[in-house]
Amino acid sequence: MTTKNEPGKTYLMQGNEAIVRGALEGGVHFASSYPGSPSSQVLGMLGHIAEDQGFRAEWSTNETTALQSCMGASFANGRAICIVKQNGLLFHGDTIHCGALGGVKGGLVIVSSDDPDSHSSTNEFDSRHMAVSANIPMLEPASVQETKDMIPYAFELSEELEQMVLVRVTTRICHGRGSVTLGEIPEKRPFTPIGLWDRMVGINWLHGFLLEKLERAREAFEVSPFNHYTGKEDADKLIITGGTGMKYVQEALEEYGADGEVGVLSLGCLWPLPEKLILKHLSKASKVLVVEEVDPFLEEHISAIAGKARLNVEIQGRADLIPPIGELNPEVVFKAVREYLGVEPKCCGEGCPAMEGVNIPARELTFCAGCPHRASFFILKQALRQEGHKGVVMGDIGCYTMAGQRAGQYGYHFMSCMGSGISAAEGLGQLTNYGFDQPVVSLCGDSTFFHSVVPGLINAKMNEANILHIVLDNSATAMTGFQPHPGTGQTAMGFDTEKISITALCESLGCRVWRADPFDVENTKNLICELIGMKGLKVLILEQPCATLAAKTREKKKVWVDTDICRGSNCGCDGYCSRVWGCPGNIWDFEKNCAAIDEVVCVGCGACASICPSGAIKVEGGDA
Amino acid sequence: MMTNVVICGIGGQGNILASGLMGSALVEMGYKVAVGETYGASQRGGSVMSHLRVSDDVERGVLIPHGKADVVVAFEPVEALRILRVYGNPETKVIYDTRPAYPLGVLIGEDEYPSLEDIDAEIKARSSISYPLPATEMAVEAGNAKVANILMMGALAALDEMPLGPDDFFKVLEQNFHGKALELNKDVFMVGYRHIKEGGVK
Ligand code: SF4
Ligand code: SF4
Hints:
The structure holds 2 protein chains of 2 kinds. Chain A is α/β, with parallel strands linked by helices. Chain A has 21 helices and 23 strands. Chain A has a 7-stranded mixed beta sheet with strand order 3-2-4-5-7-6-12, sandwiched between helices. A 5-stranded mixed beta sheet of chain A has the order 9-11-10-13-14, with helices on both faces. Chain A is globular, with a radius of gyration of 27 Å. The model of chain A has no long low-confidence stretch (mean pLDDT about 90). By secondary structure, chain B is of the alpha/beta class. Chain B has a single domain, classed as Pyruvate-ferredoxin oxidoreductase, PFOR, domain III (Pyruvate-ferredoxin Oxidoreductase, domain 3, 3-Layer(aba) Sandwich), CATH 3.40.920.10. Chain B is built from 8 helices and 6 strands; from the N terminus they run E-H-E-E-E-H-E-H-H-E-H-H-H-H. In chain B, strands 2-3-1-4-5-6 form a 6-stranded mixed beta sheet, sandwiched between helices. Classes of the chains: A alpha/beta, B alpha/beta. The interface between A and B is large, with 64 and 64 residues. One iron/sulfur cluster binds near residues 566, 568, 571, 594 and 612 of chain A.
C-alpha cells in the first residue's frame, strides 16, 4: 500500500488496502483491531506505516477493548478507526450502544467486514442491524475506490454529528482489487485538551440527542455523493442495490440489453436511509428489485417507506427472486434480473460443451503441512479411544475449528462463538456431580485464550469445574495471518513488549497446569489419558509453534520414507500415515505403492515419523 | 476490449500474488482492472482462485460470470478441470501445470485422482487450445519451486488475449522485488513466456 502523497495517481489496490489508504487520507491518529477475516490484514498494514506516518496502531486483546480504546482517543479530538469482522461487531454490542449514547469528539469510524457465504467464518451474520439497534449512521461502498473515499467522509460526518459511524464492507470488497485514484494525505491535526467539564458519558438522558443526530445524518445522506442513480429517469422498473450489488446489476442489465430501460439506485448511505431520495424514484416505479448482501435489510426498510407513503409498488428481492441465504454473485444476480425483466436465459456457456467428464476429487481444507493441530487432535482422539472414554470435546474458534472435519479426526462435539468452549464445558462438567457420566474436555487456541477464555477460566475455577481444558498454544493468531497477541511479545508497530505467559496466568489463578509437546505423540497421549482420569479443573498447554511460522525461523529437517521398510498397503498398516495422519506433505506413491514425502510441501516437522508403526519414515538434521 | 482470466490452484502456491502483480502491470498501462480472490481461511490446501478482468473502458465486478473465462491459468491439473467446467466455454484457452497435488481424500484412499491422460483429454475437448506445462519442475530447475507462479504469468502474458509484454510486467516486478529474487523472477517469467510463444509442448 502506497503512503506517497500523490493525489490523482492511480494504483491497483485491494479493498483492505483501500481502508488503510482511506484512514491515512482521513488523518487518522489511532487505529485498533482484533484480527478477523476478511479484514484481518488491515491493521497489520496500518501497523507497518504507523511510525512513519505519526499515528498509533495496535492489536487489541479483543474487539471490545479495541473499540473502547478508540473512544479514549476520540475524547482528545483524535481521529480513531476500529476494524472488526461481523462477529467482532456483535462482540462489542454493549460498547457500541453505550458509546453511541455518549457520542464522540474526534471522528470515530468502525469498519465491520461481513463474510457472506462464510468463506472464512462460521456464519454470515449481517452487520447492518447493529447500526439500527445502536442508532448510528452507516455507509457501505460499492467499489474499492469508494472504500477509500468513504473513510475520510465518515470521519468528517462523525465529527459533524459527534457520533460514531459504521462502514460495512464485505468479502468481495476486502479481497477484491480495483483501480484507486489517490487523494491527499493531510497534516495531522493537534489534539484538544480535555477540560474540567468536558464529558463523554453514555446515559439515558442523551437518548433524544442520539435520535436528533440520526436525523441530521439522514439530511446529509439525502445529498451524499455515495448514492448514485443511473439509467432511465422516472423509470417504471427500478433496481435498488447496496454494496457489491451495483456492479453485478450493471453487468446483468447490459447482458440482457436492458440498461436503457431500467433505473438503478445504488445506495452507499444505508442508515438512516435517505427517504426523500428513495421516494423520488420509488414513487415513479411499479416494480422494484432490491439486490443486497445477506439479509433483506434494504428490502424491508424500503417496503416500510413505500407502505408509509401508501405507494402501490411491488418490491422483490431476498424474499423471492434471490435466495434468502448466501453471497451475491453474477449467477444469482443475472438470474434474478432475468426473472425480474421476464427474459429468457442466453446460453451462458457453462458446462459447454455438454459432456461426460472424469470424476474429480473434492479438495477439502486441511491443516497445513507440519501443523501441530494435526498432532494434537490425533493424540486427543487416540487418548479418548484408548481409554474407552466417552469423552465429550468442546471446541472453540481458530484454525482448530477445522478439526470438526476429517483433517482433525472429527475432533470435537461442540463449537459456537469465541471463548464459549470452556464455559460450555464448565456447565456440562458440573452435571458429572449429578449422574452425567462422560469426561469433558474443552479446547482453545492461544489467541482465543486471551480474547475471551480468561473470564471463562476464572468462572471454571471459582465454580470448581470438572474439566480438562487444553490450550493449543501455537504462538500465533494463525487463522487470520499471524498477528501478534499478548503471548507473542510483539506489537502491531513492530516494537517488543513483555510476553504474557499463559502458564503463569493460569497458575496465578490457582489452576493445576501441565505442559506438553504435541509432536511427542506417545508421552503426550499418556499424559492426556492420565488427566482425563483425574477429578477437578486441569489445564494442559500443548506447545508447538504454528508450522508456517516455524518454517520461517527453523532450519528444515530432511524427511524421507525408507522404501525398504515401508511396504505400504501390503505391510498391514494399510497406508496408516496417509490414511489417518493426512499431512499434505506425507503423500502416497501410487506407482511404488508406498508412502512418500513431497519435498515441496513438507516443512520437515518430523511428526509423521513418530506415528509410523514400522519406523519407515526417517528424519535427519535441522533444529529440534 | 474485455478479457476474463481465471487463475486457479491450491492454497500456498502464490496465485493471489501473481494475479495482483499482473493486475498492477495492467493498471500501470492504463487499463481498467478488477481482481477477485476466492479462498478459505488463510492458506490450507483448499482450492484458491483469482478472477482477473481487464477492460479498456469499464471496471467490472470482481467475479467472472460462469462460462465467460477467456483464459484459465491453473497451477494444478485437477483444478484446471474443475474451473474449466464452470467458467470455460469452447473458446477458452487453458494453461496448466501438470504437477498434481493430491487432495486429502485421495491420500486417505477414499477418492481417486484421475489419470493425467484423462484430465488432458477432457481439457482439450472443453477448450480451444490447451498448454500443459511442467511449471513447478521448470521453476525448480531455474532455482526455486516457489516462483512457478511467476513462470505461469509469463506463459499467460504470451497469449494474444493479454495486452502486455515482458517489459510491462518487469516494471511491477522491479517495484516488488530486488537483487537475486528480482533476477530469478524475471528469468522464470521469460521461461514461461518463451515456452508458449514457441508453441508449447503439446
Ligand atoms: S515431516 Fe511429515 S508431518 Fe511434518 S510436514 Fe513433512 S510430511 Fe508432514
Ligand atoms: S510410512 Fe509407515 S505408516 Fe506410512 S505406509 Fe509406510 S509403513 Fe505404513
